[in-house]
Amino acid sequence: MIKVSVVILTFNQAAFIGDTIESALNQTTNFDYEILVGDDFSTDGARDIILDYQKRYPNKVKAVLHPKNLGQNGLFNTIETLKLAQGQYIAPLDGDDYWTSPDKLQKQVDFMDSHPDYSACFHNALITFEDGSPSVEVNRPDQKKKIEVEDLIGEDEIWFMATSAVMFKNHLMYYPEWFLKSTSGDIPRYVILAKHGPIGYVPELMSVYRKNKGGASFKDHYRDERFLTNRIMMYEGINKETDYKFDKSMRRNIARYYRMMLDARQLSGSYFKKAALAANYLFMKGADLAECKEITRDYILPKWIMSTYSFFALLPYKIRQSSH
What we know:
Layout: E1 2-10, H1 17-25, E2 32-39, H2 46-56, E3 61-65, H3 75-82, E4 89-94, E5 98-99, H4 104-114, E6 120-129, E7 136-137, E8 146-147, E9 166-169, H5 177-181, H6 186-196, E10 199-211, H7 225-241, H8 247-261, H9 271-285, H10 289-300, H11 303-323
Parallel strand pairs: 1-2, 1-4, 2-3, 6-10
Antiparallel strand pairs: 4-9, 5-10, 6-7, 6-9, 8-10
């Protein structure tokens, strides 16, 4: 019986995928596990590397090669690969990340087996940067040990679980329409898992999360209208998914994205759309009087009105000046 399905998701990561698979093969366990490598139609040679590992480890590595790119930032690659997982638990791993401890799977399985009411667990991870910036740990020493839905909801975006650090029970995930449209997979996944039970923290550093220009994190552009619109849709979906129990916090979170959208590249010079977004932002946030005045001045009142106002406001001063 397979205890764990390691699910590696990759697209055009030929430079990293070998190290990723090796870190999964190097696990020391007292149970059987499989390694599924879902490739979203890579064109950089990654497929050849994956097939080579399957050839060398036919009883452990299974290549899942899609005939075309499935889109949605790798979400459908994830869903289709997960369908093939036979393990009791799922250990996801992005194609440019890797595990640093050979005991990672064993320690997380031990945790999950001893906490049958938990839906998932995670451990600490090290973030390394392509440009050589100093590495940082994802989790702080005071990281909470038991995570529930309310710990994943806030007025800001909450993220403290690296994909490479998580293990969750198989067959818990489902995909509402809003999830299928989301460009973020991790945030909604953790919310849905937490609905099925707490998520535990194993306080050990056991993986590396690479931040590089080919990674998903570099596709999140906070001045891009499409990205911001997608985030609003996602959080509206999470709000509904959690039965509006955290509506106040969620609305203020959504308001942040409306505010960012006012400065989106695509909306430069688009007065009517900006004015509507500004009004929505003020409503969603419940902004105070000072911010209402500022946003109204900068985004809602047409420029010609402000110019006319400035002209007449300064007119007495100009008349006095000209009379001297």
